[in-house]
Amino acid sequence: MTDILIPKKNVIMDATSLSSLMSCGRYHDIRFNHCLVSTKGRSNSLEVGSLIHKVFEVFYQAQIDGHNRATSIGMALSAGQMFVLGCPHCAGFVPTHQIMGPDEETHVCNELCVAKPSCKHEVDEYPGMTNTPEQSAGFVVGWRFALQTCEQYFDFYKNDAFIPLASEQVKGEVLYEDDEIRVLWKAKFDLIIDTNQIGIVSMDHKSFKQRRDKSTLSNQFTGQCLLLKSRNVIVNKIGLQTTLKIDERLTREVVSFSSARLVEWQSEILPYYAYKYIQYAESGYWPPNYTSCDSMYGPCVYKQVCEADQGMREEVLRNNYTLAPVWDPQNKGDE
Questions:
Q1: Contacts 24+ apart (CB under 8 A), 315-319
Q2: pLDDT-above-70 percentage for the chain
Q3: What is the pLDDT of residues 304-326, one digit of tens each?
Q4: Do 256 and 299 fall within a single domain?
Q5: Which of 186, 259, 267, 334 has an alpha carbon 20 to 30 Å from 312's alpha carbon atom?
Q6: 176: burial class by Cβ within 10 Å (0-12, 13-18, 19+)?
Q7: Last residue of a domain, one of 156, 178, 202
Q8: Quick one: 70 and 177 in the same domain?
Q9: Residues 56 and 148 in one domain
Q10: Alpha helices in 91-245 (DSSP H)
Q11: Residue 206 is inside which H or E element, if any?
């Protein structure tokens, strides 16, 4: 009698989707299965974080491509300006005035677009910032202060000795496999560098309004270490507090993992939630977790859905949320 081979179930995960699954099944379902996001757009914190990421992405990629430091800085800050106002060829956005490039004659879009007049940026790569004012006020960070911080960053770290190898690169690898499932882990690296001291590691840019120590209890950092066969991640902290001096706002912290911790995460924690994901998907029920409705960053974006009666939730979703692109680790700024 011939044995019947049952195909393995493939699960694709990244840090954002895994963390949401750990936090709340309903959140994961709405965000990743139904691809719904708030009609209010991204928060000020997310917009500013994405702006800084874009500036650093262009800066380090320019260096990788062989440009000198001054040219790389000019390209990066021009990209930051375009991120604020939006590329005139992206998402139908029409700027109110021209942004001038480093030579003060060429529109920055001519420098950064792949082709003219039809731009080949990624969809909504430069849609413009809608929830971030020019000037900071209270707990709201202005885009001008964020760009000034980037300029100060370039001066503060002008003597960096590490070698940038890749900027905003996505890697994937099967990190777990048994007789029933196969788990592909994907991660987007802000920056991969050769430190000449602790080897090739991930440098992760983190902007913040309040000082917080980074923990090794991070799916993002754990997965990055496993993909790079490293035990360290450098957290590149960019503080956005207007009351502190720049040397207090810019710090770098090495987060280290033991081999035992990495093995436990890869062989026990990751497959447990992969099986949990399959269970939820096959049953069609994604249970809410009411312990995750409020955090230090504010209420869950879907809190009003859970607060509504079961028969009213579809209406709440229709009135307050809009369809977003299917989640992919290459999407900007959500992690």
A1: 317/30, 317/34, 317/36
A2: 83
A3: 999 999 999 999 999 999 988 88
A4: yes
A5: 334
A6: buried
A7: 156
A8: no
A9: yes
A10: 108-112, 143-156, 219-228
A11: strand 200-208
